[in-house]
Amino acid sequence: MLTYxxxxxxxxxxxxxxxxxxxxxxxxxxxxxPMAQVPLTVPDEVKQKMREALGLGQPIHIRFxxxxxxxFVVEPLHLLDIILGTGFxxxxxxxxxxxxxxxxxxxxxxxxxxxxxVVGVAYVVAVIIAxxxxxxxxxxxxxxxxxxxxFVTMIGFSVPPFFSGVLVIVIFSVQLGWxxxxxxxxxxxxxxDSFVVQLQQMVxxxxxxxxxxxxxxxxxxxxxxxxxxxxxxxxTARAKGMTERVVVTxxxxxxxxxxxxxxxALGIPSIFGGAIITEQVFKVNGIGQLLITAIQANDLPMVxxxxxxxxxxxxxxxxxxxxxxxxxxxxxxxx
Length: 335
Description:
The protein is mainly α. It has 13 helices and no strands. It has two domains: 18-84, no CATH class; 105-328, MetI-like (MetI-like fold), CATH 1.10.3720.10. Helix 4 (104-139) runs antiparallel to helix 5 (144-158), helix 4 (104-139) crosses helix 7 (192-229) and helix 12 runs antiparallel to helix 13. The protein is globular.
């Protein structure tokens, strides 16, 4: 397993380099002008100097190589300087946002906690709820619980977040007044009372996101459980006198989790991308809203960096899913 992991990590390097090249070329071909936001009263020669300051006057291969150097070398060195108090990245040019004229990774670091508070908690809650629902629905197939669960999950999977988000705002914020309708990103948790306030403003966005994620994972869990419950090894385990709890939890559940692990692992990068629609509805200043703002402002360094971060996360969690396969199923071994 260790050899397989090292080999996959080495293969990931050229893969990520190719992905970064594709992202860079696609953004270069995209329509738009970073100087479009500049007032018309600014002379053309000034705009040209601004382009050169942003690095737009250089050839494409030079700009791509510079971005690779900044992302893979300068930014990690800057992080080490923060942690260790060294000066490795001193004087090095970092990836700069065209919109804010500040380092891209500093802005991303400011937005990540907001995304983790809402989307991350929603994902964890959804997984904790979805797996037991899927297991019990499959074990009690066609029961009242299974039919009710199917009905609720189909609604949760079908209703878009922009509708369910507005609906919960109308019910729980406008009508009942239980929770705030807008997420306050400036709120800081310093004591128990501020923590309660944080939980209150998280309830509705977490509810909307968890409903959709739970619906998807629980359906996969149910289908996988049904497929394994009818296998020969289950009948053999029951014939040996094993209790139903041992058969379901030790044998069926473990094998059923193998395909579900892919869904869960590959869904984790969406945490960092943020549920863009939900962040827009509840005004959560997370990574998803940052990406939308960067696209609207034609901030190519920000869009390129965020998109590449999502690609890195997808490659990483693909590897994690493959490793979990070997843990869940002893028959899977990587030579």
